[in-house]
What does this fold into?
Amino acid sequence: MSVVPMTDTAVEIEPPVSLWRDAWHRLRRNKLAVFGLAVVVILAFTAVFGPYLTPYDFLSQDLNSRNLAPSLSHLFGTDDLGRDVFSRVVYGTRTAFLVAIVVTFIAVVIGVTLGALAGFFGGWLDRIVMWLTDMTMSIPNLLLVVVINASLKSPITSWMESRYLATLNPLYRETIWVDFLLVFGSMALISWPPYARLVRAQVLSIRSRPYITAAQALGLTNRIILMRYVVPNALGPLIVAVSAGLGTAMVLESAFSFLGVGVNPPTPSWGNMISDGLRVWQHYPHLLAAPAAVLGLASVAFSFLGDGLNDALNPRGAK
Amino acid sequence: MMMANTIRPEPSTKTGERLLDVKGLTIEIETRNGPATIVDGIDLHVGKGETLGIVGESGCGKSLTMLSMMRLLPNKIRVTKGEANFAGRDLQTMSNSELRKVRGGDVGFIFQDPMTSLNPVMRIGQQLAEPLIYHRGMSKAQARKRAGELLRLVGIPGAEERLDAYPHELSGGMRQRVMIAIGLACNPQLLIADEPTTALDVTIQAQIVDLVKDLRDKLGMSVVWITHDLALIAGLVDRINVLYAGTVVEDAPVDALFANPSHPYTQGLLASIPKLSDERSIRLSSIGGTPPEPGRRPKGCPFAPRCPLVESICHDSVPSLEGLSQNGSHRVACFVAQRKLEAA
It folds into this structure.
């Protein structure tokens, strides 16, 4: 009855190749994706360490050297207040990354949670979530953000002011956080629906796969099945969407800053630099070109990386 | 791994101690034209230590009965009547948390398709450890150690190294062994094998059957083996239930079934197994027609439209499962077979 073959000798076992490592190998072969990844890494490095490496403070004004053309001492020239544009672009990278990461993070958390629950449990929960998603997507993005910022900013600011006067707690003086809070909040509010839709569609298809029934047959709870079996299998397309979404969030933040509802001056943001530069571009094109070029580069890099990840994580769809 | 000396205790079919007892289970599916019955009042039972084979063609409700019994089917498919008692407790009425303890803890499953029944993004070892941590309260380290033992038990070479492998790195046969190991992880009292060899090639099929046989004898559990291949399980099971259109048409000890197949459907199934002695020119025997679709079941015997021995009574009333042999261990649901017996 000894039918179980036990061939312990001379069994060659390759080191385990995970799906992720496989994907990494494929990603590395894609030149555009590697370019995108390199730019993203450089920009991320700049965002973290940049402000310590720049020759000038982004706020320090030198009214004797206003609107200088790019030179060795001022790589991207100076603006109308004599501030070093390079330093401001570098600091703007930090703003852009901060906004992009926080906004995308909030949007992904909301989107994945709602989408996964809706797809997994279906029924009335699904209908409510999809209704919310459709409703949010039906409102023009820019309009919603402008309305939120325009209507909430001054009440919050004046409330903070009155709290400061009442308590003298310096915390209430830091109005810059109100800025960020509103920008993050309103941008996350318009960014989550695509993630929810994507994850819901993924979960719907994963829910009917045999390994989910197998997991249920093991007596695992819905929570474990959802978090360990369903969501990880939905991650591939989500990672792609997040990569592209980070770029979109940067562009979006710039658009809002450009319209004056984003991060407020003097905090440098590519958007408000572009906005300022646009007014004088015929005379000082570098004021427009520098932030616009960096924004374009960042956007293109994220989108290349997203495409590369898409091919790497869904090998069947790739050539 | 020597198992040659394991002596298998006599299954307790005779003492009547039933581990699983399904009574009158009726399953309906929601269709656009309202609910349609797919399984109509099925009765099955499995004794302690007994191995039951459930045989029937595709779509006759074999897997469906087992899955819905464990409430593993989507909401569209519902059990509307009947009960399924496991160790004396009705699986249909117990709470979800109680049911979860039974699933994976007391009842292990092996599924049809090893290629898709493992989570592709989780390492083998972790998937094995999951039920151990959840049902047996083991620590991660204990569960990993036990996972390694389980892989060795099901004959996976280099078991410990394989713990860190992902499913896609294993062959189909290896994956099915992993599935079996997962099904056995918590030493279940009952193992439900749902066509576990369908996706595998013939040599591997025999290995898997032998493996389950060995493990059953060693661990003393009951097994329900669902298949459409009578020949494959002849040496494995104690008793066979032949299913047709969601009802048991014949229930017999394996030897009696092969010696004296009494239902015309069983006879047809047995006749359709090709024999080595057959002339090459002989056409393979088959049963004409197709099983009734859900919602379009005939009024009388469900097999009547395809039956070679059909009589007028078959179209009017449904035969019940009646004992053929003295002790009632061989039962058949067929008017013609029952009358033949009375005449004899």
